[in-house]
Amino acid sequence: xxxxxxxxxxxxxxxxxGFMVVNGIxxxxxxxxxxxxxxxxxxxxxxxxxxxxxxxLATEPLCHYAAYYKRYKKSYPVLxxxxxxxxxxxxxxxxxxxxxxxxxxxxxxxxxxAGHDLDSIEGALTVGVATESMGYKVLxxxxxxxxxxxLYLADEKGTLSSILNGPDHRTRITEATRSxxxxxxxxxxxxxxxxHAHLQTIFSYLSQAIQGVEIQDMEII
Length: 221
What we know:
- By secondary structure, this protein is of the alpha+beta class.
- 35% of the residues lie in helices and 23% in strands.
- It has a single domain (2-220), classed as Phenylalanyl-tRNA Synthetase, Chain B, domain 3.
- Helix 2 packs parallel to helix 6 and helix 2 runs antiparallel to helix 7 (192-209).
- The longest helix has 18 residues, at 30-47.
């Protein structure tokens, strides 16, 4: 379902990606998702009783993502989301069950993930390496340009997401979404079992909150 360009294979030969297509998505399951989130957040807090950023960054998979972002003088955003839960007591934004399931799994497993409305995707999907300043509208609706050498996912119409700039506006998951594509950006050091377990975590949350959801496809590439 997703092609990987030769440049990705030569520039990032040890990097793995994962994707999962889930059908039966809906805007239901609000109260159940709230309960799942509350329980999982308590478990995450218990995992980091004396949280220190330096120590956390020495663990997997954070160390691998931090190394990738450091090359571009940026911080790993999922680490910021984790710290907002641990240090500021914040909860997930109320953006809908299908997105919150992904956010919660990101905080739990610390793997970077992009969610897309499958029906908004046009044509074949490709993972590529940015070699020019290609632009796309990010979630905010603002135009952003791909950073040279960054990894990105695109369909035949344009960029869907990238590691450094995040997902696009065109294929964002909305309340009308019925089939979702969850794409995991691995970086060197992130293993296939970690990616597979992360996708299973997302589906576990979805299946508890939304009756009738099913996996159409799942693959590690």
